[in-house]
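User: what does the whole thing look like in 3D?
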Amino acid sequence: MAATDTAEPSRRDFLYIATAAVGAVGAAATVWPLISQMNPDASVLALALAEVDLAPIAEGQIVTVKWRGKPVFIAHRTKKEIEEARAVPLAQLIDPQSDEARVKKGHEQWLVVVGICTHLGCVPLGHQGSYGGWFCPCHGSEYDTSGRVRRSPAPYNLEVPPYEFASDTLVRIG
Amino acid sequence: MSGHSSYQPQNRLLRWFEARLPVGWLIHSSFVAYPTPRNLNYWWTFGGILSFMLTVQIVTGVVLTMHFTPTATQAFDSVEHIMRDVNYGWLLRYLHANGGSMFFLAVYIHMFRGLYYGSYKEPREVLWILGVIIFFLMMASAFMGYVLPWGQMSFWAATVITNLFSAIPIFGKGITEWLWGGYAVDNPTLQRFFSLHYLLPFMIAGVVVLHVWALHVVGQNNPTGIDVKSDKDTVPFTPYATAKDGFALVCFLILLAWFVFYIPNYLSHPDNYIPANPLQTPPHIVPEWYFLPYYAILRAIPSKLIGVIALFASIAVLAFLPWLDTSKVRSARYRPLFRQFFWIFVICCIGLGYLGSKQPEGLYVIAARILTAYYFLYFLVILPVLGLIERPKAVPASISEAVLPKGGAPVAAGAAAPDRNG
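Assistant: Here's the predicted 3D structure for the full assembly of 596 residues, as structure tokens:
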């Protein structure tokens, strides 16, 4: 800085600080597009909606559809599977959440979850494991018929994506 | 690197050039006249081997790029095209893939040598930290290169490793989607990994220049760990170090050639010859052998976030090593206690590598936890405490006293003398 003995900030100090501040804003504005370009682009965002016809899915069947490049499981649950999921006390769960909160009212037989293990992203296998739901082959996590984690290392339940029923046989994911 | 040239070429044209840009001086003073400690053993040849391997990777990589198509629909097929159609494509790809493995083998030996002989201690802290940075860049480079063939292992390696960042609280999801350029590993991910895989080796080359520069400022360490005190302690780089490095390099290349020509797929996984399928995970996914110890540390810890932190900390802790080791004596030759803990540490690292390849169940998990604990205890407790309680053996007065017979016999006899301290 300027070689003056005065304790008072000089006009030169002000100029230095002002120049540095404008420079910093300019640098940030220049870097931002370089960082932002790595985010999901318009073509990826455009594919963010998937429609699935439920009519051909039989009771007890799980189908896998692709939504946003990820697998989504749509399970047509049997009465027994729904009862099993609802009979579990919440205190026994690793990530407590009721089955009612994970399905749409009036469509309890349909479970829609993102088919990605919440541990490190592997795809779990359906109708396997001790809880009748999913089993992850990578690190042994198990999920029940509501897609809730019952055995670690996965920390969370299978994610429920945003979706709605356009009609009784058509579900719109995203 | 001052400009005053003591190197004077005979040729007039070269002299004219030298006066304007002293390249000859730089090469002569760095690789010909440069004094190296006279007692360097073969563990000191891995720096040269690593420089050579970096060159091999860049040359084969640049050539492979001429035939590779970095898109999710064509990457796998273009790799097969390289293997089947391109002239010598199989050779170039196998050299590049196995060269990566050999690169890691050499760097691990290089690092353990530094650990054993205390090469990270004052005044070589910056030299050591630059090395840790190179190692980190190498790991990033190797990971992204592994993703490019877009086979099943490529895809799921990319998925598992990028998912490590999802452990970060609050920002995790945003960061992973930013890394992927989508909602899952897909074409944008492959394209950016390709771009970075091409960039990083040149960044490594840049840091290597700094690493070698720092080395030439502070001078090489040596098996006794004591400083060079007189000209008697050193020999010129050429012919002594060049010949020794050259011989070691040839031996190392025989090993590389054995892998390339006889067992080119030994170190890879058959599943990577299946095209990537985002809807199906292979039943048993493991990383390449050189990442297995870190993978074992990650899985040894039941919490996802702490596991990821431990994984990164296991590498970052190396950068703090110069200040964690409190002993003033560099070489393990004169540190009887340290030497024992060091070899346990080596076994611990190999053990973690073995456990990283096993399913995380039962006894394997317990063993991985014990070894992970030792890994961190070694750096954070054992090294700081050892320096305070250990009684080192007597250190010789100079390198020449340690390796030359008494009475100043000629060099040839000195080279054959048994190492009294080893």
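In plain terms: Residues 187-218 of chain B form the longest helix (32 residues). Chain B touches chain A through 34 residues (CB under 8 Å).
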